[in-house]
Amino acid sequence: MRLILHNILKILILTVLILCSYSYIESHGLVQHLQKWVEDTATEYLTPEDQKNKTGSLEALVRALESRSPGVLRVQAAETDPVAAEGTTQAASLQNTAQAAVQVSTEASNQDSQAVTEAAATSGQDSQTATETPATSSQDSQAVTEAPAASGPAESRKEANDSAARLGYRAVWLSYIEFMEYLESVEENTEENFRAFYNRVADKALEAGMTTIIVQVRPFGDALYPSKYFPWASCISGRQGRDPGYDPLKIMVEISHKKGLAIEAWINPYRILSTTDTSILSWKNLALGWMKSKDKKIRDRVLTYDGAFYYNPAKPIVRKLIVLGICEIINNYQVDGIHMDDYFYPDFDPETVTKTFDYKDYKTYCRYASAPYRIYPSGMDSIFEWRRNNVSKLVSDIYKAVKATNPNLSFGVSPSGNLEDLRSNYQYYVDIDHWVTEPGYVDYLMPQLYWSYFDPYAPYKDLLNQWVSLMKDSQVKLYIGLPLYRMASTDIPGLEGFEFQQAVLMKYMFDDIRKNETVKGIALFSYEYLDMDSRWYDFESTGYTEEQKKILREVFQIIKNMDWNAG
User: Fold this and answer.
1) Domain limits of the chain?
2) How many other C-beta atoms are found inside a 10 Å radius of the C-beta of residue 320?
3) Which of 160, 290, 435, 537 has the most CB within a 10 Å radius?
């Protein structure tokens, strides 16, 4: 009897200890931390097939681990970011970033749409679970994943152009500035008026011999199309969040393809505001909801620097938002590619480079990067390398999502044209050398060579030769961005200003490009300088003097009459 009582007492004591231990673990959030680690590790681990069959289950994660080498856990765990994993919903965190993005479709659940809307509308409320980037339902996800990749009619046109001319890719940028000028030029912003505007854009581009229009559809964390994630752009409706009453991107895709032009959707990934006046943001803007949150970790998803606001490049939740927005475009519109400009990190100086912006996130990274808690990959020994890695993660995630949705679509980036600036520790943080040599980042690079031959800081021909040398043996295509907007400008001093007053400068630039077989195309910034004689739209070029317009007309004829087959 005594032995029985003794065993019963031991069981009771053990039970109390277990309950106390569990209470301690639960009160300190250790269970949640463990669950979060499993979820985020699954995000990095699961293959698309795992996602499809098990929708991110723990069973699929275990199966994936068992099928790989024992050392993979340490390596893959290094990719998990504890700084930005906070607050991520279970559904979103269990899905691979690119695969989750691919699964966004027009048939996404009403619950997801409501979650995003509520997130933007919180404006400081604490129900932040709803503010996270939503995931589509399993049924919708499977439907999108299994749907065949649809190559738009422009794919055949682009291939034909590439075979017909060595410089088969010839593009013109159409920026948010031109949309603002359109708005200011019309009495009513109607679908009919917008169609007339873009028909003229397409016709003028064709007359100049262009094959592609690169249209800025996400300039400031807003959109020129109805979006689940971003409010309507002010440049198309006059006020952020206001519906213009028509779908500009749908119209532009329709007209472009009808006229035989390819169209690429151009986004600015991180920029939210170029001013500190947050009153101009829509109440539906997710960034505004994050800014006003009572939770500091959530507020840190948006950063301010030098009078501007940016999404925080260090946060995985930000990367997921950007990728989901891109896949919303390519699932709903037959665009021929996704294009990003050079606005990544802002420019720092020696005083601010290691003391501001996302430096607190880097400090957290350093704590987790030190032994025995090393969960990050080695090689990022400075804040500069860490920032480059943040940008590369986003670019890689976008590339994967685009190719998983439609392998025929192109994804390219137009960085600064000065390689010295790109390799600097004070700006951009574009790991250009890595993107050129390693697959899985971009299909093309389009450096902006916006300087003249006699520029003392960055001579055009020197920069062109540097890019040709860098990408000579790369699988990434090289296109060159050219400064149409600087031609005939009167505010450039010295010898460089004299060069831009000569229309023949554009011919010299073309000629040097055609001598280099590494270069596969060109792009002109921007459209309004092709349309200097417009009687309907108040572009900057239409306000030029007659002497300036004469220079632009000569430039237009040079572009129009260029033999793109010659080399």
Assistant:
1) 1-77, 153-561
2) 26
3) 290
Give the Cα separation of 487 and 416 in Å (integer): 19
Do the beta carbons of residue 449 and residue 419 sit within 8 Å? no
Distance CA 364, CA 203 (A): 53
* Assigned token pair, 131: 């503010």
Q: Are 122 and 131 in contact (CB under 8 A)?
A: yes
Tokens representing residue 507 in the block: 């011919």
Residue 201 neighbours by CB under 8 Å, 6+ apart = 174, 178, 213, 527, 531
User: DSSP readout, 98-126?
Assistant: HHHHHT--TT--HHHHHHHHHHHH-TT-S
Q: Is the pLDDT of residue 173 over 90?
A: yes
Asked if residue 435 lies in contact with residue 441, where contact means CB atoms within 8 angstroms, the answer is: yes
What stretch of H or E contains 318? helix 316-332
> What span, in angstroms and rounded, lies between the C-alpha atoms of 251 and 352?
44
Closest CA to 313 of 284, 285, 351, 343: 343
Q: What is the mean pLDDT of the chain?
A: 79
pLDDT of residue 203 exceeding 90, the answer is yes
Residue type, 536: W
How far is the CA of 196 from the CAs of 248, 462, 556, in angstroms?
12, 41, 22
Task: Summarize pLDDT for 531-552 with one digit per residue, the tens.
Answer: 999 999 999 999 999 999 999 9
Residue 543 pairs in a beta bridge with: none
Share of the chain above pLDDT 70, in %: 69
User: Which numeric CATH code is attached to 153-561?
Assistant: 3.20.20.80
Here the tokens at position 49 are: 């097939």
Give the count of alpha carbons within 13 A of 151, CB side only: 11
Statement: residue 143 has pLDDT above 50: no
Q: How many CB atoms lie within 10 A of CB 473?
A: 9
Q: What's the one-letter identity of residue 324?
A: L
Q: Of 434, 350, 359, nearest to 391 (Cα)?
A: 434
Which residue, 352, 364, 402, 362, is CA-closest to 383? 362
Please spell the DSSP secondary structure of 41-94, one letter per residue: HHHHH--HHHHHHHSS-HHHHHHHHHTS-TTHHHHHHTT--TTT-TT--HHHHT
Nearest in space to 532 (alpha carbons), one of 243, 208, 260: 208
Average pLDDT over residues 351-376: 77
Q: How many CB atoms lie within 10 A of CB 76?
A: 19
Residues 6+ apart with CB under 8 A from 199: 255
Give the position of tokens 């939740």.
317
Structure tokens at 37: 């680690």
Residues linked to residue 213 through DSSP beta bridges, in sequence order: 172, 263
Alpha-carbon distance values, 333 to 61, 136, 236 (Å) = 33, 18, 18
Start-to-end CA span in the chain (Å): 102
Report the share of the chain in percent with pLDDT over 90. 65
Query: Could you tell me which of 315, 332, 132, 344 has the C-alpha nearest to residue 217?
Result: 332
- Whole-structure pTM over 0.85, yes or no? no
Residue 557's pLDDT band (boundaries 50, 70, 90)?
very high
